[in-house]
Input
Amino acid sequence: MYGFINTCLKSLVVEKYGEEIWEKLRLQAGVEDSFLTFGVYKDEITMQLVDKACKILGVPADMVLREFGEYFFEFCKRSGYDHMLRTLGGNLYEFIENLDALHSYLSLSYQEMNAPSFRVEKNEDGSMHLHYYSDRRGLYHIVPGIIGAAALDFFNIEISMEIVNQTEEEERTGKKEHVVFLVTQNPLLSYKERNKFSFSPQCLDDSEKQIDTRSNNKDLEKSENAIRGGSVCPVKKSHWKTIRGIITLGRGKLLRGFDPVYPKTLWIDTKTFCNGLPFHMVFDKELRVKQAGVSIQKIVPGLQTTGICLDHYFSIVHPEVPFTISSIQKFINSQFVFQTKREMMPESWKQRPMLELRGQMIWMESLQCMLYLCSPLLRTLHELEERQMHIADIAPHDVTRDLILLNQQRLAEMELSNQLERKKEELRVLSKHLEEEKKKTEALLYAMLPQHVANQLKEGKRVEAGEFKECTILFSDVVTFTNICAQCEPIQIVLMLNSMYLQFDRLTTVHDVYKVETIGDAYMVVGGVPVPVSTHAERIANFALGIIIAAKGVQNPVSGNPIQIRVGIHTGPVLAGVVGEKMPRYCLFGDTVNIASRMESHGVPSKIHLSSSAYQCLKYKNFEMTERGEIEVKGKGKMHTYFLVRNKTACENEIMGRPIKDLDSGRESAQSFQEDRAETMPSSHQSVTQNQPEKDQTTAIAMKYIDTPTDAQSSLKRRNPAKIADLTGRSYDSKSHGSLHGNQHSDDAPRHQNRGRVKPDTEEPQIRNVRSNFCNLL
Output
């Protein structure tokens, strides 16, 4: 079958059931995603698609095929065959009768087409018997769908089709399956359909015609009665009434009462007839040739001998029936295609392609002979040259001349269309691959920079810096990391850090915090940047509790014991932006970064060290904290600090992003960092090494937080609600979060310092689509 059929089937599934069903159907059938319209495919592909569709949709095959038949009719109309189908016949009988002629015409372009054959017979009660012949078994259920849709669309009638006979014709040379349908026409539409068409322009025109016809009939009856009665003048009134009844303003139908006139003798001599119709043959019931046109005699010299048998020189190609007069009479309404036999041709002709003739059969009852009016079946000028024929060999009145020239152009256009379709398919595949690569590239880019920053850099725009009045920063590092590096191979250090950072990165997704960077054993995370949230301190606190637990699952490659980390947290304002063009990084600037780093460096192993500002943020947030007291901090003097012990309400599984089990319903403390338990590792982490990260990291369950609008957002909303960002990627207004446009804070510029960490991330952070407020970096 041609790809046109498979494309129609795909369009049906996608339109009625969706892309997902088609993709599932395609994968199960093992076929490609698209088909070339003029490409030839094996019948098994279509059969496989139909079979899988029945199984996936849970619908019987006959219903699937009938629905496909109805859709195929509409698909052909949308593909440009609407006018061609409408002009096949004035009623359903003529439409079906000329389907074979349509297939014969399409075979000029679709040379590999193996179309079914149709034969229709009228019954006395107005019904019809439709004979369907095909080489493909099991597809006859398509016929009721196609014919029913055509009858309703073109002729506004409903039909019912039932199978009355189904046989295998052994005597036929092809198209063995023979199915006979009883077609019953019902011109009266149902109430629903009648309402559907009642106000259409075409139906209004039809109703006007019916009214005019009834008025014309009444006029004719009045005229005839008047003539018979003699009450009026038959010359004047009756004459004009009759004319008006026949052609009322050009709407009369003269052909309905047409009666042809034949001459008593045929006013044409035999020579003129044979020259005027150069391709014709007359043969009797025994297939003996009685007469032949001059061009056929030229091509097949044996026909010059009167009385030869036609089947010695020709074979029937279409319809595929035996070469007998009874078979020909049975399919007399079909177009017949004859092909010359090679063994009967002259020696000089045997190397040429055999000539095919196409035409109609006319039975002459008075002579008991069959007239075959035909023309050469040639598709291109190349085929004409191969048979050493010329345009002059075809009669001037024969449209085969124009058909050859037009089809030559048509085939060239089809070849060009086929090439364009192939290129289109190649571009589609390349575009699909390009889109996949683009997603990979963007995922890698978004792992290094916030999404809105990365998008601005891709567009070549200048990335502005933004001030965040309050955020929480966390630093962590590995205790005795220098000693571990001195006693281990570099690959062992890499494996240990990778095992630890994979778990840390997973926790950034659980608590929705932003990973800024890593340098060696140092890990920096911020909450409230680049998306301002009110729960930034709680997020960082829970993240810190999580990494303490995760670190106990990573082994020291020297001692084999769990590694220990120090964690420091501080809350305050920062300035965030992108620095440099080579390997740009989203960095944080300000004294808050320095203090958070000091909290980590002055911390205690396996403890979470808090500054006083971080303590104030967590004071009423269901966290247990202990006071450390005043300590001497390098560069800052004495500072009052605290230790974070545990979350009073969240369990360990909730903090770690694991499914919450029934055992956690008691809401036990996630963790308690006592001095006597500092060296203890939970049993659930004993089997985890730097070479084997935790298996439960595959699915991270985000912890729920309830955020309230920040003060800057609330004040801005009171001034201009339209400028509030809705967390979909739009920028905040320049006044929110204390923007530093112009020289507003030029005196404070020296206070913003960079920690100096510029090494890119190794893992992908949580991607966020929200832009914070930016100002120019001074």
